[in-house]
Design goal:
The protein is mainly alpha-helical. The chain has a domain at 14-56. Helices cover 58% and strands 0% of the residues. The protein has helices at residues 16-34, 38-56. The radius of gyration is 14 Å and the shape is globular.
Length: 66
């Protein structure tokens, strides 16, 4: 299956129900980010915070940014 999702590390161990719930939540997050809502702003702020923390720890992404 081709997709652009960054699957969680325990994806192989998840049940079909857990996978379905995760995919639904991920689609909702992506839709919220595309819209100009308070949720989108909060998600962007959290994403930037995590990226700054990772950069401070010397993390270099393996996957190319889109």
């Amino acid at each position: 299956m081709r997709h652009d999702y960054d699957l969680p590390p325990d994806w192989a161990a998840m049940t079909d129900e857990e996978r379905s719930r995760w995919m639904t939540q991920e689609r909702c997050r992506r839709q919220a980010r595309r819209q100009q809502t308070p949720v989108a702003a909060a998600l962007d702020a959290e994403s930037e915070r995590v990226e700054r923390k990772l950069a401070a720890r010397g993390y270099a992404p393996v996957k190319k940014q889109r």
